[in-house]
């Protein structure tokens, strides 16, 4: 079974053969981000860690696109969005709102949490179950809704 990093590297080679310079450049950025994280940790990353790195890269792209859009640079915002969209090919499918709410409700029941002061305990219980399939802000909002009633 190939790792996520190996898949990124293979897709980079395929893009090079297809002379898709835009895709090659973007995939190289992602491969480098994963390799830099592995170098920092001084070991190969597991796929779950690679997903975390790619999610961080996607978040950077989304935030940059919003900043470019606000500054009136629609072309650069579009390029950032294209890079974020490319990352979706390598990230796990995102949870629907219904699935997310169900996991949050399960975590609330497990922890016996009540009120906003228990948010940390619920987040701690639910995040391992999410495993990169939802943005932290969305999870936080879902937990907040569940605890308010």
Top CATH class of the largest domain: Mainly Alpha
How many discrete structural domains?
A: 2
Shape: globular
Q: Count of helical segments?
A: 7
* Biggest sheet features: none
Task: Tell me the span between the first and last alpha carbons.
Answer: 44 Å
Number of strands: 0
Strand content: under 5%
Please name the CATH topology of the largest domain.
Hypothetical Protein Yqey, Chain: A, domain1
In which range does the helix fraction lie?
Answer: over 70%
CATH superfamily membership of the largest domain = Uncharacterised protein YqeY/AIM41, N-terminal domain
Can you tell me the residue ranges where pLDDT is under 50 for at least 5 consecutive residues?
none
